[in-house]
Amino acid sequence: MVQKAKILLVDDRPENLLALEAILSALDQTLVRASSGEEALKALLTDDFAVILLDVQMPGMDGFETAAHIKRRERTRDIPIIFLTAINHGPHHTFRGYAAGAVDYISKPFDPWVLRAKVSVFVELYMKNCQLREQASLLRLQLEGNGKDAGGEAKESAGLLAELSARLAAVEEQAEALTKQLNDESTDAAAVATAAHLERKLTGLRRALDALEPGTGSTPSVPSQN
């Protein structure tokens, strides 16, 4: 069973949260509510999220301040943030949003179809990254097994290596198709950059797997997941 991605919705108005849930329910992912910046930061302490939809105008800690805290934390700094605002103060206000770490800045009222499409891109990228981490975890187990018993489990190791390679090939194919789709649709530069980063990590993992092939004589290093 494929685990659903979590999407964090941050807005101090219950009616806005309800509207976001109605728009994003079609994605069939886990939607988590937060009615303040403080509540959002608390949720981010324990859960991993694919993307954050963050209202700018909130009492107390506003969206800009909340985003600054998110980007300062190592655990959460790479989570995409989409700012939502009902007030447009011009280019300076928009620039402040991007400077705070947002990947997009959408003014209300927004097109539900556009918002859903943007969120779905980041959900898909998140799912691909999760698959990549699973492949890297299996690779680490393979490397540890080779180190403990270099000769006694050659057949079993070869089988696991073949399975890893097949799983990685499936992820590579999906990532390539997603990157092509993003480039063809001329979507957000941040989404394209995230997809390119994912493909670079996949390339590193493929090289590590290739180095495990019999006769290479080298000990590969597992690519970082950061």
TrEMBL record:
Sequence positions bearing 4-aspartylphosphate: 55
Domain of life, source organism: Bacteria
Keywords annotated in UniProt: Coiled coil, Phosphoprotein
GO terms for biological process, alphabetical: phosphorelay signal transduction system
UniProt feature coiled coil, ranges: 154-188
Pfam families the UniProt entry points to: Response_reg (PF00072)
Domain annotation Response regulatory: ranges: 6-123
Designated name of the protein: Response regulator
Protein source organism: Streptomyces tuirus
